[in-house]
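Troubleshooting log. The previous run stalled partway through. Resubmitting the same two chains, unchanged.
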Amino acid sequence: MTTTLPFDGIKVADFAWIWAAPTTSKYFADHGATVVRVETESPPDLVRTVGPFKDGEPGTNRSHSFGDFNTSKYSLSLDLKNPQGANVARRLIGWADIVIESFATGKMDDLGIGYETVKKLNPSVIMVSTSLMGQTGLASTYAGFGFHAGAIAGFYEITGWPDLPPDGPFTAYTDGVAPRFLAAIMMAALDHRRRTGEGQFIDASQLEMSLQMLAPQIIDYNASGRMVSRIGNRSRIAAPQGAYQCSGEDQWCAIAVETDEDWANLRSAMGKPTWANDDRFSTTEGRLSSHDEIDKGISQWTADKSPQDVMEILQVAGVPAGVVQRSSDLMRDPQLKHRKFFRELEHSEVGNVPYTGHQFRIKGYDNGPRFAAPMLGEHNDFVLRDLLGMTDDEITEIAISGALV
Amino acid sequence: MLSPYTVLDLSDDRGEMASMILGDLGANVVKVEPPYGSSSRRMGPFLEDAPEPENSLQFFAFNRNKRGVTLDVTTKAGRAALLRLAEKADFVIESAGPGEMAKLGLGFDAFEKANPSIIYVAISAFGQDGPHADYVASDLTLAAMGGPMSVQGNPERAPVRLSVPQAWLHASSEAAVAALTAHALMIQTGQGQFVDVSAQTSMIATMLHARLAHAIQGSDMERAGSVLQAGAIELPLVHECADGYVVLIPTGATMTGMVPWMVEDGIVPEEWIEGEDWATYDRRFLQQQPVVYALEDVFDAIRRCVLLHTKADMLDRGLRDNVTIAPINTVEDLTKFHQLEERGYWLMAPLPDGTDTAVAGILAQLSETPLDVKRWAPKLGQHNHEILIEMLGMSEAQAIEGGATIP
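Second attempt completed without errors. Output:
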């Protein structure tokens, strides 16, 4: 096992908030970088005020909407509008290799730490500004969340049932999409800087990055005028596909027949019921046009079985099937256990709690979140003294000014 | 930025976006396809509805900034050519499924032997080993097993996925991050790395704050249609408007800007403007502190106001008045959104049928190393001569033996 970490020695000043940008800087924190999350009590990051809270009890340091997105980071509470606070921010920017922020466009300039200033303080810094719409254009000031970007991008239109208004993906979908693109961009920029010494400014729009997820459909519309919309769980090219209700309370198993062979295997696994022997069902076209009828038959078969049993029977038969898992199911999932996906870490206020692990494993390196998310302002002294090298007197003066809130 | 590096893309629709991202960031990407083409060439949507290998828009969309060669890796000559390419490469990305490459003698060991500092990224549904490693999967079953379906959709009906496949795109974009993380480790240790990306866990990430709900608060989050669950409060997100739907929540800034619209439309009396500290309205109702106008009355007013206006008008007026309203766009609506045009987002791409079409643009705007698209998706075997013969110095006969067609 190597003890070297990929981003050992890299320093990040993290002025991000909510989910998208903190998830991005978390990639660096979890993999060895020293990341200082700058936040304030007044008001706290919005996600510190929404659940899930540990044991259902609200509290600034009890939210996993914050915690699970901010592992391996140090927290500095800082009032950026206080002149002493702004001074500390400038020191931090001078210290950093990467500065990331996700305020409304123009706010960093208003605070006196826009890119022109940042570049003077630290000529080779990589500064990342990320927002829904990007730093330029009429809509650059659009102050929304990931569900707004999700609607504008088109993800709402394609999620739900054709006969009902759109349901949309779960909350802020683009917050789950954009961080990967942005982290990759930043890692490339960091490698470029390592080789050339050159820093730069990165203007990343959450909407623009997320549109890659619909790239074929955008071309299809532009080339043919064809538009996608929501079709429940069905596929346009294969059938039957859907989530089928099983025994138990609101339990479902997803089944996806992709080929004629899958259909033959599904039919056998169900014990070759007579309804399924219909000749019309032997082709994709036939199954697509008889989808409702086939769904009824499959649902009868699944109704008295647990979703796990349905999945296991069909997996043995080689048919794609998977339990619709809730968060409690994920904690029991044997595959996730095998990968040591969830990691328990000791949080200073709420104690030992599980955190989401990494989606990739690097052989010979037990990668995962390194330490629990910080309490608000937990590392003020460590950051000022140990990272920025301030003296007792300096720290006292800053504290007296009221900047450390 | 990544111009010193070469990526071998051995993947299909399950991994092609990973190497596209590295290519967009400047890497030299070689797409290696079997002689009959990547399976993604057989995936729609298709140009002119004609399911031919050069007409797949799935393939076209995720294979830009790549050169393409064909090799038959079931032959000795094909494998030898691939490993010679690996000697000059920095990254290999594959999505064949656990153990499949090793069966061909092309597992990590073979590549590491050819190139000790290689970063080998394997993308699969559940990971390379473990009790579910060999489970068959599709986009739908990954959306189920990864959890997002459990919190998506109308509670009166089945849980739903997005109607455009997403799972392998999540896994692919994660694989790009994985590749660069492992590379940063290799820079320090000099050691090649094997990286195992699981699509199931990539889907878990998209569950956001629901993924650990049970372990933290003692209960799962449940699907609630388009309702946003913010602690004890439920906020309807989707509202019908004059020509479709919009997404809107009553944040402080949005209410400050929108109450005057409601007054103007005769929906609420004028005293609403001064009658509430709208700027802090959201924080108070979230924390269940006193508000002057009850949340249900506010939502009723929002509903009635929104019904009177079109989504495009509300987006534009909202931008002026600091009201955050998002139209639920179709693809057509999206292509008309002026912001993307103003930022020069759309790129014109020459489609295989000879027409030019607007496509999704670069990933972000960089001040010193601007990203661009240097080439569009390769035709099958388009760069066989350039790469196999000119670069590797293979003879025509050797290339043909390895599965390449040489024009």
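Takeaways: Chain A has a mean pLDDT of 97. Chain A has two domains: 11-213+339-400, 241-326.
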